[in-house]
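Supplementary Methods. Inverse-folding protocol.

Structures were first reduced to a discrete structure-token string of length 238. This string, shown here, constituted the complete conditioning input.
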């Protein structure tokens, strides 16, 4: 079950992170807990032409897609920081409108199954940037040769896997993608990029690849999600 995006109702805000939000949230929070979301899975299902790729060479980033279970982190944001946090997340996550910002029930670890409603970002399957279920070879080809304003796509994969492992969360599918690229890369971890990933990027970004050309005009009809999210984050703030 999901619920509509939250406005400013005077209560603390829970945010469920399953990708880069886990290791680079970018907002102030009061506490963080391991948490479980049932009904959605973490997977590389979003073409990235901004953070981890570009128009000519799209990368892949994680999204929550239907089916399965996802273990991640739940961040509690104080009511005083709620509006600012929502505005920040809208600017970060809703660049193209590929996600639906939604309230979902997540179970917190260590409190006898306490459940809270948390804001998270579920992939919009009708969006042209939705990649669907790609085979491992295709995922590896896209990730190894892509780079966006937030850095190499490979570092995104490495950092996500490293953080999941530090939490005791195992993601065999993500690990298999890295193994296809080169399992030796797993020993490197840096948010700013590594010489090894930079070298691989230099070689692979010029190799021919059947990558989709995702033009902004094709995504324009989804930009309203960014506007709706911005409006919701400001609503009832005074």
């Amino acid at each position: 079950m999901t619920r509509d995006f939250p406005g400013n109702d005077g209560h603390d805000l829970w945010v469920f992170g399953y990708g880069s939000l886990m290791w680079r949230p970018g907002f102030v929070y009061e506490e963080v807990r391991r948490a479980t979301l049932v009904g959605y899975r973490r997977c590389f299902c979003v073409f990235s032409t901004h953070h981890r790729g570009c128009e000519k060479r799209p990368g892949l980033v994680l999204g929550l897609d239907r089916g399965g279970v996802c273990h991640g982190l739940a961040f509690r944001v104080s009511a005083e920081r709620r509006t600012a946090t929502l505005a920040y997340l809208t600017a970060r996550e809703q660049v193209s409108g590929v996600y639906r910002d939604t309230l979902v029930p997540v179970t917190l670890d260590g409190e006898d199954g306490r459940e809270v409603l948390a804001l998270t970002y579920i992939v919009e399957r009708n969006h042209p940037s939705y990649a669907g279920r790609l085979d491992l070879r295709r995922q590896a080809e896209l990730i190894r040769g892509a780079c966006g304003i937030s850095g190499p796509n490979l570092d995104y994969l490495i950092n996500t896997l490293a953080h999941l492992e530090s939490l005791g969360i195992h993601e065999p599918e993500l690990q298999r993608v890295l193994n296809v690229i080169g399992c030796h890369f797993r020993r490197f971890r840096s948010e700013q990029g590594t010489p090894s990933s930079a070298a691989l990027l230099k070689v692979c970004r010029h190799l021919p690849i059947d990558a989709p050309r995702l033009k902004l005009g094709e995504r324009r009809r989804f930009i309203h999600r960014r506007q709706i999210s911005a409006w919701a984050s400001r609503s009832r703030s005074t």
